[in-house]
Amino acid sequence: MSRIAVLKGGRSLERHVSLRSGQRVEDALRRLGHEVTGIDVGPGLVGRLRELAPDLAFIALHGREGEDGTVQELLELLGVPYTGSGPSACGQCWDKVQAKHLMRDHGIPTPDFHAFSEAAFKDLGAADALPAIEERLEFPIVVKPARGGSSLGVKFASSAAQVPGALIAAFSYDRKVLLERHVAGHDLAVSIVDGEALPVVEAVPNDEAFYDFEARYEIGRTTFVCPARLSDEDTARAQALALEAWSLFGCRGFARVDLMRDAQTGELTVLEVNAVPGLTDTSLLPQAADEAGLGFDDLVARIVELALPGVSA
Questions:
Q1: Angle 50-56-60 from CA coordinates, rounded to 5°
Q2: Any idea which architecture 112-181 has in CATH?
Q3: Which fold has domain 3-83+303-307?
Q4: Which of the listed residues 114, 190, 261, 271 has the most CB atoms within 10 Å of its CB?
Q5: pLDDT beyond 70 at 231
Q6: Which residues pair with 95 in a beta bridge?
Q7: Do domains 112-181 and 183-294 have the same CATH topology?
Q8: Tell me: the pLDDT tens digits for 55-87?
């Protein structure tokens, strides 16, 4: 039995999702026989961790501070082992613009994109470059904050008239935005545990044209198909691409790679890598693990074992 602190909640816009992930993890850890303390992350985190002196911190934080490497850096400073990827991988995955540049530089296919900061838009005349960007990417365009998760602030622009509103929405979440070529087709996710790709999950929104925040987390808004409706060849390609991205970013423990398969061309592209994927009852990693024969408690036990080799319930 180990003393495990589950870090959850926090101050990000994804707080409520994190609380759901964290509670589910806490319940599983207790069933596994561990001594568990849930910590709603805030200003007193360092003092709480020093007082508790846990054997392990299970990171169930989503959004900034939990996914961007901040908490990981702090835990390393305190000498507390933790689940998942380190600060470098988290930081690179968190910034979608940096991540896409890195993937493109290393030959991993990702939808064409352009990005600029709020300062460039306001002070350097980037707004005047929008027609050129729109021409190169063609409509529809996906506009999203560079740093964030759960599809918060992501908008579709099907015409030039819709771009300003989409930019305003994205800038309300971050000071840097990404304009990305929209890929119409299959929305796929490949979860990875200890360098092994799990079955591919396909997310099919029931009413919405876009897999947005509500479609992700409200039961009944999305149909999840696992294994995804892909040929064996496409499944193998999606898993191989996901593993290539996992290795490129230096992920460890567990992660999720989101991809699109173009309905017309069949081309597979990587959208992003999630270094701290959700563990709620609608999250994709647990669904993929279950399809692979790894129930939720077993998945949590495996994540703990990867962070603390030799530990078992």
A1: 100
A2: 2-Layer Sandwich (3.30)
A3: Rossmann fold (3.40.50)
A4: 190
A5: yes
A6: 147
A7: no
A8: 999 999 998 888 999 999 999 999 999 999 999
CATH class entry, domain 183-294:
alpha beta
Least Cα distance to 243 among 268, 215, 219 occurs for 268
Out of 12-21, 138-147, 189-198, the most confident range is: 189-198
Residue 227 class from Cβ within 10 Å (0-12 exposed, 13-18 middle, 19+ buried)? middle
Rounded distance between C-alpha atoms, residue 243 and residue 235, angstroms: 12
Predicted model pTM: 0.89
Hey, where are the domains in the chain? 3-83+303-307, 112-181, 183-294
Peptide bond before 140: cis, by omega within 30 degrees of 0? yes
Tokens of 168: 């305003």
pLDDT the model gives residue 211: 45
Dist CA 224 CA 189 (whole Å)? 10
| Active-site residue set | 14, 150, 217, 256, 258, 272, 274, 278
